[in-house]
Specification:
By secondary structure, this protein is mainly alpha-helical. The protein has 13 helices and 3 strands, in the order αβααββαααααααααα. It has a 3-stranded antiparallel β-sheet. A hairpin with a 5-residue loop joins strand 2 and strand 3. The longest helix is centred in the middle third of the chain and has 39 residues. The protein starts with a helix and ends with a helix.
Length: 277
């Protein structure tokens, strides 16, 4: 009884705060040592004394810790709680942090569900492809599902020649050119016109960027539009775009006097490289 009488009115002992906030006494002692939450007063007997304001600050610390912030991060995020505005700002920060956490968890959940579907469709274990799918999901690449159709040589080529930034840039370029092919076809622009040939040059340069001018990679790239189980909408779009692309490239190669799809590589590739410089 004397122990409780030693605590002044409007103050709480460390044990009472620990019980009220569902933490251990050791945790409160540690927060005090680390400068996160010092007691508002010390009794004559050397006991830590806390106020209701301290419990609000403790709630702030525990909430940020639950959201994954380190104690060092929390130190930098703590602000005084002396005015309604300061308290509202703290609550707003916590609301924002929780929303970000929810978004992050929701995205992680989506990636797990997508990867699960891809694993079941693949019907074999390939952790390299799983990792590639995860990377492409994080890149927000809607065509992550194509990875399961690539052979090992094509995937090794992609891994060696593209990082996240360059890979995303290539995908964006590819999709823009596919849309342009459909637009030109719908507008009735002849494949051998100036516009058609400018498109063909841009498309061919895109292919060369992807293959690193390795002509043997072209056949694999062409197979992108020929997967039997590919997404129907995607395949339908590729079929439309490829109809114009093939015509435009046909005229383009004819004007250059080359056939890069021949099995011969040496002289023909050098001839193209020299003409395109």
């Amino acid at each position: 009884m004397d122990k409780h009488k030693a605590i002044p009115q409007d103050y709480m002992g460390i044990g009472e705060v620990a019980k009220k906030m569902n933490v251990t006494v050791r945790t409160l002692q540690y927060y005090d040592r680390e400068g996160l939450l010092s007691p508002s007063a010390i009794s004559e007997g050397g006991r830590r004394l806390y106020t209701d304001k301290d419990t609000v600050k403790l709630h702030q610390i525990l909430s940020l810790k639950h959201l994954g912030f380190s104690l060092d991060d929390i130190k930098n995020r703590l602000i005084p709680l002396d005015t309604p505005t300061e308290i509202a700002n703290v609550l707003s920060e916590q609301v924002s942090a929780i929303k970000q956490k929810i978004e992050s968890l929701s995205e992680s959940l989506r990636e797990l569900e997508v990867l699960r579907e891809e694993v079941l469709q693949m019907q074999f274990v390939d952790f390299k492809k799983y990792a590639d799918i995860i990377v492409n999901l994080q890149m927000k690449n809607d065509f992550y599902w194509l990875i399961k159709y690539f052979d090992d040589q094509t995937l090794d080529h992609i891994r060696n020649h593209f990082d996240k930034d360059s890979g995303k840039a290539f995908i964006n370029t590819f999709m823009l050119l596919q849309d342009e092919a459909i637009r030109l076809q719908n507008a009735g622009v002849p494949a051998d016109s100036d516009k058609g040939q400018n498109f063909a040059k841009a498309y061919w340069n895109m292919l060369m960027d992807f293959t690193g001018k390795d002509i043997s990679m072209l056949s694999r790239l062409i197979e992108l539009g020929q997967f039997q189980n590919a997404n129907h909408k995607w395949k339908e779009k590729q079929d439309i775009a490829n109809g114009y692309v093939e015509q435009a490239l046909g005229f383009y190669f004819s004007h250059l006097g080359i056939d890069p799809f021949q099995e011969k590589t040496g002289r023909k590739q050098n001839e193209y490289s020299n003409k395109n410089q």
